[in-house]
């Protein structure tokens, strides 16, 4: 992601012929995601990258990372670029004062384990670490597992000691957390496909002359194309790397998982979110 931010920086500065300077602060140097969003609202920061955390202001932004909302990358692009995406973006701007400039796809979340899991029936008795997010708990309960919310920092040791059997995360985190040392299988559930936005404060954007507003938006669009290539290559390399480290990738009956999970997903969504979720399912 830092590479994409640097590409955005370079593109903006070149296209504006130096009239705009972009300073990039990686690795949460300016604080947590919520700190930075508050900073944008206060005018001390101009841009950041954010996703479903925006639901704290705009409930429709929860749709950016809902289990079994998105089938694949093509479906995600149709949603993010279409009317549903526009509706989510409009609420983000209206409720938070942040303008989404472009979106990036994130790596799909997959289930890891020490036995192959291909159907929901295989989950019976599996103690599964999940983030402390109610919809995750409800969905995995519905699927037959025993979901256990736990801090990410405790997951490796808990897997090592056998207190939990499985966890779910994108390939990037499976690799960086060395879960390949304590898990043998990546079960390709791809149960959450999500996207994030480059967001800029509306006041900050509106202060720029029209030609520079156009520069920022053009640079964001170009950065999306650049990031897409990086993302696809990274996902390919991560899969290869995890296999080299001994993990076996297992094809999963995703349709069976989706069908079993949908009642819990629908019951977890509020009156603003559910109609959008149903629109996504129609695409």
From TrEMBL:
Cellular localization per UniProt: Cell envelope
The family line of this record is: Belongs to the bacterial solute-binding protein 7 family.
**What processes does the entry annotate via GO biological process terms?**
transmembrane transport
A cellular component annotation (GO) from this entry: outer membrane-bounded periplasmic space
Q: Which domain of life is it from?
A: Bacteria
What's this protein's name? TRAP-type C4-dicarboxylate transport system periplasmic component
Where is this protein chiefly located? other
Organism (species): Vibrio maritimus
């Amino acid at each position: 992601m830092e590479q994409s931010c640097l590409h955005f920086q370079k593109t903006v500065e070149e296209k504006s012929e130096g009239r705009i300077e972009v300073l990039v602060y990686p690795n949460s140097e300016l604080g947590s995601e919520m700190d930075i969003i508050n900073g944008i609202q206060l005018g001390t920061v101009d841009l950041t990258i954010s996703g479903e955390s925006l639901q704290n202001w705009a409930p429709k932004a929860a749709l950016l990372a809902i289990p079994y909302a998105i089938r694949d990358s093509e479906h995600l692009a149709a949603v993010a670029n279409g009317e549903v995406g526009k509706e989510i973006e409009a609420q983000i701007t209206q409720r938070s004062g942040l303008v989404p400039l472009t979106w990036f796809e994130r790596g799909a979340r997959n289930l890891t384990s020490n036995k192959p899991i291909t159907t929901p029936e295989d989950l019976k008795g599996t103690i599964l670490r999940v983030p402390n997010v109610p919809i995750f708990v409800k969905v995995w309960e519905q699927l037959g597992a025993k979901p256990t919310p736990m801090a990410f920092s405790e997951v490796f040791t808990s897997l090592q000691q056998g207190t939990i059997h499985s966890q779910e995360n994108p390939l990037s985190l499976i690799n960086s957390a060395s879960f390949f040392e304590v898990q043998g299988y990546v079960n390709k559930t791809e149960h959450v496909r999500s996207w994030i936005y480059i967001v800029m404060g509306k006041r900050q954007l509106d202060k720029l002359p029209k030609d520079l507003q156009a520069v920022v938006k053009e640079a964001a669009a170009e950065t999306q194309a650049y990031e897409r290539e990086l993302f696809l290559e990274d996902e390919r390399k991560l899969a290869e790397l995890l296999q080299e480290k001994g993990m076996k990738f297992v094809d999963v009956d995703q349709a069976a998982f989706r069908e079993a999970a949908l009642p819990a997903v629908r019951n977890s969504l509020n009156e603003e979110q559910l109609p959008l979720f149903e629109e996504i399912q129609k695409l």
